[in-house]
Each structure stands twice: as structure tokens, then as C-alpha cells.
Amino acid sequence: MVALVAAPASAATADLSRTCGGVKTHYDAYSSRTLVYTQKTGTSCAGHAWVRVKTNGTWKKWIHNNSKATISNSTGNFEGSQHKSCETCTVKTI
After folding, report:
1. Is 4 exposed, middle or buried (0-12, 13-18, 19+ CB in 10 A)?
2. CA-CA distance, 53 to 64, in Å (whole number)?
3. What does pTM read for this prediction?
């Protein structure tokens, strides 16, 4: 008998930031096959945290929240994620 075991998918992180009123606000980005989020860790910027995932080769709709935007599932089929610190800000893909 041969047993095959797959290694767990690794998670990735990134740091986003932007400056509002001379003060830098940081956003933490996290991505795994089952959980992605963008979380604002400062308060100088009024913009929301934004995130979306790629499944079955297609990018899904953006979701956003004032402090932390989260998408999760139990099937582990996230192929990638995109994060941004405001609606019109630069997108970070991880």
C-alpha cells in the first residue's frame, strides 16, 4: 500500500500603506487557499480595506469593509487574492 500526502498550501502576506493628512496608514494583506483578508491597522485614512479572490480561473467581485475585509471558505480552492487600501488605489496581488 502506498499513501500519498500533500503538503499544506502555504500562506502569503503583504504590507500595503498610504498616507493621508501626512500620516501613514498600514494595511495587512493575508492569503491562503481558505482565507484571505485586508485589514487596516491605522486610522488616518478614511478608505476601506478591499479584497477579492480568484477561483476557477476567474477574479470574483471586490468586497470591502471599514476595518477588515475577509473572504473564507472550507474547500481550499482560492487560487490567488488581490488587495488594496482604497477603491481607486493600486492593487497588490498575492
Report:
1. exposed
2. 12
3. 0.85
The C-alpha atoms of residue 40 and residue 68 are separated, in whole angstroms, by 6
Q: Length of the chain in residues, anyone?
A: 94
Q: How far apart are CA 57 and CA 61, in angstroms?
A: 13
Where do the structural domains in the chain lie, given as residue ranges? Answer: 13-93
The rounded distance, in Å, linking the Cα atoms of 50 and 52 is 7
Chain centre distance of CA 70: 7
Cell 470591502: give the residue.
64
| Cβ contacts of 74 within 8 Å, gap of 6 or more | 34
pLDDT digits (tens, 9 = 90+) for 13-56: 999 999 988 989 999 999 999 999 999 997 788 889 999 999 99
